[in-house]
Amino acid sequence: MASDTTLCILGASGDLTSRLLLPALAQLLTEDPERSVKLVGAGIDEWDDDAWRTVVAKSFASAGASGPAVESVRDGAIYRRTDITDPDGFAALLRECEGRVALYFAVAPAIATKGCEALEKIDLPEGIMLGLEKPFGSDEASAAALNELLAKLVPEDQIYRIDHFMGRSTVLNVLGLRFANRVFEPVWSNEHVESVSIRYDETLGLEGRAGYYDHAGAMIDMIQSHLLQVLAVVAMDPPSTLDAIDFRDAKAAALRATKVLDDDPVAHSRRARYTAGSIGERKLPDYAAETGVDPARDTETLAQVTFEVQTSRWAGVPFTLRSGKALTEKFSEIVIRFKAVSHLPRGFEGSTEPSILRLSLGPDRMALELNLNGPGDPFHLDRGTLEAEFGEGEQRAYSEVLEGILDGDPTLSVRGDTAEQCWRIVQPVIDSWQRDDVPLEEYTAGSTGPSDWPAM
Ligand code: BG6
């Protein structure tokens, strides 16, 4: 029986495929055993179907997936050695696909672009969906050029610029928290909010990814991509619906209004890279001494930038985004700091610090820090926290975005204009760093980063 959808993964032998895409597919098959998918792997390795099925089986098992749907996709999986820069080879690969085709470029961006150029020369199956990983282009102009090329292939709603942070339950839960609770949305503005920060500290170091990371750095790897998407979800106005048009319009409007605070990247950005140190038992060398790193490139492994969202809702509120590698602990949080009350009746003692809402980006957790009367003196305020665990954890992020592609729903994918905006937003910072206007500082691997950076 023919499958309804073919998932064709380009870059079948890559780390992304085995570590994230296949487990995500396994999860979707477990949740919906009726889903009918043909899995086609393609790459330049001399593999046969059995070699590919072994990889698929291992990844499916790592996701703890089993059952007839999972087994049938695994046993029916095929592998075709393909040079995707060659139109004839690409056309032959597409002839192996059946039903609706989702073509996932799990390859380096330069190869993906060449693959898209090859696609321009062949007839594409009706309704084909194209999934592209970040980074999308290397600046605003190259992202625009890539958008132009893609527009010649398929309509925008068949293009999936993947950002797995848009599939993270905590990010999506911000929507429910804001829009389904009257207690938050009315205070979600510069009238009540003092500052917003979004932080994604990792303990991971380079993990053998110098070829990619040494060109990207923390700014492009995390801030230009994932964290600006999170900012958009925090800052957007309530959309009329959560469909692909309304939701992405609202995100795009927030990002169009975003720029570096005061247009001053020198005052409002910091960069640093790690030197030798240890994180628990793990010893890390100087970033500059890692294999594949060119120290002269001055790549940062920790970046912090403060933006502003120039709308009547947010004018004047700093949005600080930070992300880095080789830090002491994995720490990821959206923090909304509220303003102090306009008048605190005289007579209260104790904690009067303004309220803070913390949304942890994994494990998924919400904490609202408030000033509360403790059991003793009724006029003495203590700090109390309302906490809730929510969401389904990390695992679902890739399943969520993969589901979008397989089902033809681009709501969570990054729209073309938004991808260009994200480059426009960070370009002044990148330029100032290239001019060396902002010094490249150092921090010891396993520390919390330079101690004198503006607090978040
Ligand atoms: C990736 C970055 O996109 O996101 C990595 O390239 C980073 O450097 C990762 O570690 C963080 O996301 P997650 O979901 O793996 O924590």
UniProtKB/TrEMBL annotation:
<dbReference type="InterPro" id="IPR022675">
    <property type="entry name" value="G6P_DH_C"/>
</dbReference>
<dbReference type="InterPro" id="IPR022674">
    <property type="entry name" value="G6P_DH_NAD-bd"/>
</dbReference>
<feature type="binding site">
    <location>
        <position position="221"/>
    </location>
    <ligand>
        <name>substrate</name>
    </ligand>
</feature>
<feature type="binding site">
    <location>
        <position position="330"/>
    </location>
    <ligand>
        <name>substrate</name>
    </ligand>
</feature>
<dbReference type="InterPro" id="IPR001282">
    <property type="entry name" value="G6P_DH"/>
</dbReference>
<feature type="binding site">
    <location>
        <position position="325"/>
    </location>
    <ligand>
        <name>substrate</name>
    </ligand>
</feature>
<protein>
    <recommendedName>
        <fullName>Glucose-6-phosphate 1-dehydrogenase</fullName>
        <ecNumber>1.1.1.49</ecNumber>
    </recommendedName>
</protein>
<comment type="similarity">
    <text>Belongs to the glucose-6-phosphate dehydrogenase family.</text>
</comment>
<feature type="binding site">
    <location>
        <position position="134"/>
    </location>
    <ligand>
        <name>NADP(+)</name>
    </ligand>
</feature>
<feature type="domain" description="Glucose-6-phosphate dehydrogenase NAD-binding">
    <location>
        <begin position="9"/>
        <end position="173"/>
    </location>
</feature>
<dbReference type="Pfam" id="PF02781">
    <property type="entry name" value="G6PD_C"/>
</dbReference>
<comment type="pathway">
    <text>Carbohydrate degradation; pentose phosphate pathway; D-ribulose 5-phosphate from D-glucose 6-phosphate (oxidative stage): step 1/3.</text>
</comment>
<feature type="binding site">
    <location>
        <position position="164"/>
    </location>
    <ligand>
        <name>substrate</name>
    </ligand>
</feature>
<keyword id="KW-0560">Oxidoreductase</keyword>
<dbReference type="InterPro" id="IPR036291">
    <property type="entry name" value="NAD(P)-bd_dom_sf"/>
</dbReference>
<keyword id="KW-0521">NADP</keyword>
<feature type="binding site">
    <location>
        <begin position="83"/>
        <end position="84"/>
    </location>
    <ligand>
        <name>NADP(+)</name>
    </ligand>
</feature>
<feature type="active site" description="Proton acceptor">
    <location>
        <position position="226"/>
    </location>
</feature>
<feature type="domain" description="Glucose-6-phosphate dehydrogenase C-terminal">
    <location>
        <begin position="177"/>
        <end position="452"/>
    </location>
</feature>
<keyword id="KW-0313">Glucose metabolism</keyword>
<keyword id="KW-0119">Carbohydrate metabolism</keyword>
<dbReference type="Pfam" id="PF00479">
    <property type="entry name" value="G6PD_N"/>
</dbReference>
<comment type="function">
    <text>Catalyzes the oxidation of glucose 6-phosphate to 6-phosphogluconolactone.</text>
</comment>
<feature type="binding site">
    <location>
        <position position="202"/>
    </location>
    <ligand>
        <name>substrate</name>
    </ligand>
</feature>
